## 1
Amino acid sequence: MNIASLAPLAVVLPILGAALTFLLIRHSRAQRAVSIGLLSLTLALECLLLASAWNSGTAAVTIGGWLPPWGIVMVVDQFSSLMLVVSSAVSLAVLVYATGQGMADGDEDAPVSIFHPTYLILVAGVSNAFLSGDLFNLYVGFEILLTASYVLMTLGGTGPRIRAGVTYVVVSVVSSVLFLIAIAMVFGATGTVNMADLALKLGDLDQGTRTLLHVMLLVAFGIKAAVFPLSFWLPDSYPTAPAPVTAVFAGLLTKVGVYAMVRTETLLFPGDTLNTPLMVVALLTMVVGILGALAQSDIKRLLSFTLVSHIGYMVFGLAMSSVAGLAAAVFYVAHHITIQTSLFLVTGLIERRGGSSSVDRLGGLAKLSPLLALLFFIPGMNLAGIPPFSGFLGKVGLLQAGIELGTPLAYALVIGGVVTSLLTLLAIARVWNRAFWRKPEDAEHPDPVLLAGPSGRAAGPGAKINTVTLLPRTMVGSTLGLVVLGVALTVFAGPLFGLSDQAARDMLDRAPYIQSVLGSDTAVPATVTGGGR
Amino acid sequence: MSVNLTLLIVMGALYACGIYLILERSLTRVLLGLMLLANATNLLILSTGGYAGLAPFFTKDTPAADYNDPLPQALILTSIVISFAVTAFMLGIIYRTWVLARQDDIQDDVEDLRVAETPSFDAEDDAEIPAETSEFPLTTVTAGGREMPAELAAAEEQPGSLNLESGPEGGTK
């Protein structure tokens, strides 16, 4: 009986919270207390899981006493527990932000009381996907989080949200159907859906079948992760959702797809059969994504495009299938969840303070609210990869691994990575110049809130803004917390890189994962961890 | 493992119709297409279980070769429930689209169209702003094929935005 056997609680606690908050739907104060309390408890539990995975290695929990090849298992290893901790920390910050926004707007009994249960179900789905050691359970985790995300995406049911929601729902359902087809094919070929068991049995199939199954899974996960040719749904649908919802989607949902891709590449299909196409796709994702970002004038859309673009870095690290590359990718995922979410939260604050999220209509925010400028500047520079920050460290890790690999394609990706980083800087600098540095009078059709001056009190027609707090303390506080977490990733980059290095080693070795699930006397066939040689 | 040919043909037909329908612009048809795809996939999972056999666990002395594999049926049950929830949600969305827009079609993204129509010339970024910013501009730049004072070019984000304001003499510039 060790701490890892508490892993199912990471899924059960949020679902319990969802049930409770659904009962308390008419008591918004109790609802807030329950959801924040339970999510904090989940976060504490996951920190324990991370510590246990760090100290005593991979552990598996069999659910309901059914033994592994037949029953459902949950696997806690360094990668999954790291993802759990980062995702729960981020979702807690976003939850506090969203409650702050709800309280500031005074919607005590608005239809958004459905927000809390749905949000907790989303968190449960994400945890389930990270912990699952079973392909079909992974599908169920995806469906839990997707169904919750459909509701969150169309919250309020306004015209633009319904329009964006339609695209999002249809694309997600199609990707889920593809995933289900892949599971059916995998089951037909091997007779099992347990991932550790699959890792052993997939190796016996002939090359053609293996490649087919591999490609099916990668396409299904690629849609969810928004990898280049499958990424067009994302900038279309994310920006219209409410700010906290966009933030948590940007941080978590695509990363669950990346997580599933990592498991596919390392556990199920080791070796380097599809590494070249993955590298090409990574390069295209980076470059096409960031070029899209440069064309946008709406900050939320711009950030959605940078999100797509930076998924390319993670795929790059994954495609190298070397310890250095995979470790850098793991580090980059943790960094990117935090940074992308905090940027979207700051954008929500900018929208409140400046009345718009379009850079054309903003100006002078640096003078109006220096704190807001600081909150945007730090994660912005972090995203662009300016030296002291974790974005720089993650990119350096990736570039080093790429140069170590030394193939022409790897060098092309290294160059592409540097160019993308510079173009991200350009995109962020454009936002900075317009929204923060120029005078408010230079903005096109500025909102009255923007022109009202530092106090935020409008003299004249726009007097109704007096009733709304422009920058509520809870919202600023939670954003500040996330920004500080992003900086902490920089400060503690050494231990974190150590952890992701160990995680990458274990994932490429495969033995810790398989033996923790199927028993320590299972023979694990040696894999070709070529690293491009 | 042998498979049931009828199931396979029905599955293929469902996939074909489903894919045809989700390529339509009408939301109701897209929904029908998604339902067909989900059911075709259920048939696919069913056919991975092999031929219909005896019920498992019914009596203890059934030989293992005569069992029907129960796992695919459990998987199908889960996937039916999931597609049920998604279908209900899609119907809600379709109804809402009808209430809001009085149409059943997928609508274009306004912001996408706006970005697509934006000219590649961006006055604030691309115009050559002269170093001297006096009140009496001497320098002119060529913006969008027209000669204009640099100040005007810098103020002009999109063609037409400035022209809305009337000039000092009362007429429009």
## 2
Amino acid sequence: MSSPQPAAAPEPATGRYRVRVATRTAKAFWLVAIVIIAVLVFAPAFASRPMLQDLILVFLLASLALCWNLMAGYAGLISVGQQAFVGLGGYALFALIIVGGFDPLLSIPVAALIVALLSIPVGTLVFRMQGAYFAVVTWVVAEVFRLLLAQWRELGGGTGTSLPRSATNDMIGLDFVAELFGVRSAAAREIIIYWAALFTVVLVVGGCYYLLRSRVGLALRAIKDGEVAAQSVGVSTTRIKFAIYLFAAFCAGLVGAIYFLQTSRISPDAAFSLLDWTAYIIFIVVIGGLATIEGPIIGAILFVLLRNTLSGYGPWYLIVLGVLGIGVMLLAPKGIWGNFSQWTGIHLFPTRRRIEIVSQASKDAR
Amino acid sequence: MILRLAGVSKRFGAVVVADKIDLDVARGEALGIIGANGAGKSSLFNLITGVVTPDAGTVSLGGRDVTKVSLRNRCVAGIGRSFQIPRPFESLTVFENLLVASEYGREHGHRGANELCGSILERTGLAAQANTLAGKLTLLNRKRLEMARALATQPDIVLLDEIAGGLTEAECHELVAFIRQLNQEGVTIVWIEHVVHALLSVVSRLVVLEFGRKIADGEPHAVMNDPEVRRSYLGIDDEVAA
């Protein structure tokens, strides 16, 4: 497979045909998006710490949800084992810091790379299964990692461990941020983590959109409609699905590393939690809208809002989430954004290519 | 020889869909295949394209043995194919259906995909539907799309499976003219068709299948007059008639 090209780039008008992807709404949205990102980058200057913490969670959950959506909504890969890569990301980070003595901030991308490398043999194994079996195997693999890492004495075994204060206190950029915002080192650390999470979600949204607009996106939609037909026009279906799986693992690794750097504490049960890293993620995608880019982002915001509102009600929190999830699946299976988009025709991340025959005159001239 | 089948056999349980079939197709040839329903015509295409692998025998493409080569790689090697029961990518538009094929087919990753797809759309009469979702097409246009998508992979050899059924006389003329022109442009054609008059106005050679066996192969009119073909395919028993 040659590298994905943004085949969507508007063709020069010299040809007889012109292909458009962007819509007017989408162009306007890009301006808004740049403003939103700029505001978010400078948010630590005016937002409260709880606000930043919520935003970190939104960014990380949205990143995971976008990846799960890419797999399930586009590549037809239903994984219930993404917690394997979140957990591995967290443990890789802790190992790099505690065992390797690396800088926490630099350890984040390294941890994600380690996870991506590990996902190659894991993927080779789980890709031997299809459909429901694939789902079950991904979950089994995650359990195996949970049990394996519980044996790692240096990282606290089954009870887990915390990051040493000395390690987190001389993170790269800490003094600079502390001075810039006039805050203490704990708050400065959170600001750096906030930026890392923001960077991650921008990377994932950008990556997903680039992928879906490229020829890979076309191939993914073709695979979903008919695998044999896709292969018979030259699409290497397994290779594309594997690439998506790898990308999702890398992103999950990033999320895990950032999340557990923020909590400074890790345990096998938290790192490899099916509920936190897969069940909630599926909820987010279903609520927001499967097979859209906007949906998982909206779902993540809604999820964190719900969590904050309902956190005082104990088990009612989970019951409300469950009822809401079932309700959306039954009444509005396309999710919030899916229905909104169908109703209004608005796509903020258009991928549909429209061809126009430029003019009869130029056609005759050729 | 662009395509060569040597002793290709395939059975599904008790049903023999291909029985020691030998078939040579020369580069640039236009070959027709006829046979009653269930004679193994579409199965032959599945064997050639790699949807199913034969129990015995070999398939070679341009002198290279591709018997164990995947469906996807045979497309990249230059085989294009239309499915008898159309399999459009329903959530893509007609244009996007072609675009996938042209981006991933034989010349994958090439420039000028938009131009190629646009011109195929016009030549196959789908230009007006270019931005329609393939899932919303009529059966007739779905069949056109099958052919158009196969061509968008830029194949050396294209396998067409019953694309003329249900066309009006005028549409049929257009189709015949189009396929003839394709053939003149150097594309090798293998065409399964029940609309025999359309087929005969394009192909220079005709193969007849019966229960997975090749019972005739040669000049079309000679083949159509062969007593066994008349009995098997047309249901005319010359001895009884005499």
